[in-house]
Amino acid sequence: SSNEMWGGRFASGPDAIMEEINASIDYDKRLYEEDIAGSKAHAAMLADTGVLSADDRDAITQGLETIRGEIASGGFAFSREREDIHMNIEARLAELIGPAAGRLHTARSRNDQVALDFRLHVKSALERFEAGLEAFIDALLTKAEAHADTVMPGFTHLQVAQPVTYGHHCLAYVEMAARDLSRCRDAIERMDECPLGAAALAGTGFPIDRHQTAAALGFREPTRNSLDTVSDRDFALEFLAFAAICATHLSRLAEEIVIWSTPQFGFVKLSDAFSTGSSIMPQKKNPDAAELVRAKPGRINGALISLLTVMKGLPLSYSKDMQEDKEQVFDAIDSLHLALAASTGMIRDMHIDCEAMRRAAGHGYSTATDLADWLVREAGLPFRDAHHVTGRAVAIAEARGIGLADLPLDDLKALDASITEGVYSVLTVEASVASRRSYGGTAPDNVRSAIALWRERIERK
Ligand code: ARG
Fold this sequence. Notes:
Layout: H1 16-22, H2 25-28, H3 32-48, H4 54-72, H5 85-97, H6 110-146, E1 151-156, E2 159-165, H7 166-190, E3 193-194, H8 210-216, E4 221-222, H9 226-231, H10 234-260, E5 268-269, H11 288-311, H12 326-349, E6 351-352, H13 354-362, H14 368-379, H15 383-400, H16 409-415, H17 429-435, H18 444-460
Parallel strand pairs: 3-4
Antiparallel strand pairs: 1-2, 5-6
Helix pairs in contact: 3-4, 3-6, 3-8, 4-5, 6-7, 6-12, 6-18, 7-10, 7-18, 10-11, 10-12, 11-12, 14-15
Bound molecules: arginine.
Organism: Fulvimarina uroteuthidis
EC number: 4.3.2.1
Keywords: Amino-acid biosynthesis, Arginine biosynthesis, Cytoplasm, Lyase
């Protein structure tokens, strides 16, 4: 049989493969709420502008409500023959209310319809990520508050570099998450334009009111160019770019959790709620959630590259290629949602072993820079000379298997006669972090003022 929506000029129905390659209902049914909201706003506007009778509008609105109930309760029979969510709903509407259903598609095309549904979906996902990022930031700030004074090794090249505080480390992730939040809000702001009414590609001759539908659907204003509107997927690309960067941050945090929770590091213990056991090794507690968060960029980066590749070189305006925009965006939404929620939960529950962190902070001659700085400050040495003297001190201590602070004063004096007893006060890890008071540095007082600043900003929004 030929198609119920466009069968007029068709003598036969589609090949089975045609139907299979063409159908998107298996995944775009996820857009049913948005599709129904869009159709209701469109019908209301058509009635207000005199294109549709009030009776038809009421029948359409009620029918759409019935369909929403059927889909929500799982009682709706989705059909691949009806291709996508738009035609599944419209065909069901015709079954329910008869000929009035055929008037709903006046002054509209599936091209502006799908652009609307998809944009609404991405926009509300981003709004949920705003809230998710705020919760994540809150968990990090709470940890930072508890550990403004907790000393741990700071790393470069994953080698012990200089002591830092765990609070400062948490705040590094707050900075990343805050940039993610700002990218998220920025993208919402830019996509806040309503596609409905662009019609197939050229607009319509009916006296529609696009400002009315834009407002009804919660957009700031309608889009300005009908050709661009039906062929634009920047909003989805921007979501994916935001998601890829955010997931990258979460994967770095996850990697640190994986490393830090090994017995060799022992900096953190994951809660039972965020670990798994082994079916053979009874002693095991594995950081599976952290590993999965670490892996999510595989899917999300894939989605970004996939959609960029689908869109590149497409001539204006709509092409069916663009139907390939949805599945991976949906997957990226779900993946990022899980990654963010699991990261927030892990941070919130994680036990910090302050003693293990402090012990590790003292290893690896982490206060060598403090000794060099002391020589510059107290003995007037140029930094490069101070660096050399300190390097020799480290070599001697290392040969004896002791720390810098354990070197007798006479040995230090042999390296540079101006060294005095006072030098020992800068060689502890606590003194080291306390001295790093430069703006943005790791000193506990800096950490506390940064926390206060972020608390104020997040609460103020
Ligand atoms: N399912 C289609 C999509 O996702 C809807 C738009 C179809 N428009 C068309 N002219 N074939 O893009």
